[in-house]
Design brief:
380 residues, Butyryl-Coa Dehydrogenase, subunit A, domain 1, Butyryl-CoA Dehydrogenase, subunit A, domain 2, Butyryl-CoA Dehydrogenase, subunit A, domain 3, 3 domains, 12 helices, 10 strands, 53% helix, 16% strand, globular, binds flavin-adenine dinucleotide
Length: 380
């Protein structure tokens, strides 16, 4: 067993950590205040090769696998969960199926520019009547004169308000059910009938989500990803990998809340001594550190399995479930340690506390992760 990152991964961790501190941290307050994603980060990170590091060098990636991706997401999330969301979709669910199942033309047209940050990706599965129950989607894609005519509505789509393209899940044949009747199509933002409107949330405000509607939106046949009718399994593959990145985002957030708490507990003096000296607070910090460490190893193990092409469905769900709950526990304790000051708007820990709340809901709720794990351990 080897518990060390490779030299390349360590170098990348240092580089992306310092980039995030210098180039992302200064943008966060404004991005949160205006609920606007700083889209200039896409070309900036793409040019430096920091955007989609897991993809092979031949497409412009760094070839450092899912672990590399996890490192990037964690370092960005340390400063902003909202910004990490946009980056995570670009390197994960927004492009995975194009890489694994797409044609070479699709890779050149969408994946390569996405890796460079010249095109922004989104992933459109969720609908108003289909959240956890993804098979209940109602969007249809009907083949007509060399095109697929898309009709339907997608909701809560990360990057949806500014993306250049979105991977859309739609029924091409409802009679075959989700397993054989759903297909995956790439819809370009300028296609007539593709409309979008922004949604607003109380947490991770710098990460933008949108509702997308498709009204007789004609997508060229060559934008079908992989085989017609096989889209559902491509989506599930993408979502499994996405859970590992999502867990890394929770980890980055928990680490930020922990670091802020360690500093504060050593500086804040009450009853003539730093509050960290009270055993109750020292124990809180000890538990926070343990939670973070445990989450990290679940994540790295799942990412390692992913990189080795070994089964990882259970491990990805465990990492996602555990890390998201760690984010909530750690940010809740961070707020308690900061006392009244933590509740003030200018305090960063109230943002951490708010941002953590989405971790157990997005990209498969905690209940759904438990469903996945229970199935994987043989409970039927
Ligand atoms: C900020 C944000 C970003 C998002 N980004 C994207 C994106 O980019 N692309 C995309 O396609 N989607 C995206 N989503 C959608 C997200 O994946 C869904 O919100 C999530 O899967 C839950 O679906 P839902 O909100 O409809 O909740 P529901 O499915 O309606 O669930 C409501 C509650 O019921 C529980 N529940 C549901 N079914 C079961 C069951 N079988 N057993 C036990 N409990 C159950 C859930 O756990 C939850 O507690 C995003 C959502 C948000 C909020």
């Amino acid at each position: 067993m080897n518990f060390e990152l490779t030299e390349e991964q360590k170098m990348f961790q240092e580089a992306i950590g310092s980039f995030a501190e210098k180039e992302i941290a200064p943008l966060v307050d404004e991005a949160e205040k205006t609920s606007t994603f700083p889209v200039q980060l896409f070309p900036k990170m793409g040019t430096l090769g920091y955007l989609c590091v897991r993809y092979p060098v031949q497409y412009g990636g760094a070839g450092i696998g899912k672990i590399g991706d996890c490192i990037a997401v964690e370092e960005v999330a340390y400063h902003s969960v909202g910004i990490a969301a946009g980056i995570m979709v670009q390197s994960g669910i927004g492009t995975t199926a194009i890489y694994t199942r797409g044609s070479e033309d699709q890779k050149q047209k969408y994946l390569v520019p996405a890796i460079r940050g010249h095109k922004i990706a989104a992933f459109g599965l969720t609908e108003p009547n289909a959240g956890s129950d993804a098979a209940a989607i109602e969007t249809t894609a009907t083949r007509k004169n060399g095109k697929y005519i898309l009709n339907g509505t997608k909701i809560f789509i990360t990057n949806g308000s500014f993306c250049d393209f979105v991977l859309v899940a739609a029924y091409t044949d409802k009679s075959k059910g989700a397993r054989d009747g759903v297909s995956l199509l790439i819809a370009d933002k300028d296609t007539p009938g593709f409309n979008r409107s922004r949604l607003h949330k109380f947490c991770a405000r710098s990460g933008e989500v949108a509702e997308l509607t498709f009204e007789d939106c004609a997508v060229p046949e060559e934008n079908l990803v992989g085989e017609e009718g096989k889209g559902f399994r491509y989506l599930m593959e993408s979502l499994t990998g996405g859970r590992i990145s999502h867990a890394s985002r929770s980890l980055g957030l928990a680490r930020a809340a922990y670091d802020a708490s360690v500093t504060y507990a050593q500086e804040r003096v009450q009853f003539g001594q730093p509050i960290a000296k009270f055993q109750v607070n020292a124990f809180k910090l000890a538990r926070m550190a343990m939670d973070i460490e445990a989450a990290r190893w679940l994540i790295y193990y799942a990412a390692w399995l992913y990189d080795q092409d070994k089964p990882h469905v259970k491990e990805a769900a465990m990492a996602k479930l555990f890390a998201s709950e760690v984010a909530i526990r750690v940010t809740t304790e961070a707020l308690q340690i900061h006392g009244g000051y933590g509740l003030m708007e200018e305090s960063v820990v109230q943002r951490y506390f708010r941002d953590a709340r989405l971790a157990t809901i997005t990209e498969g709720t905690s209940e759904i992760q438990q469903l996945v794990i229970s199935r994987e351990i043989g409970i039927r």
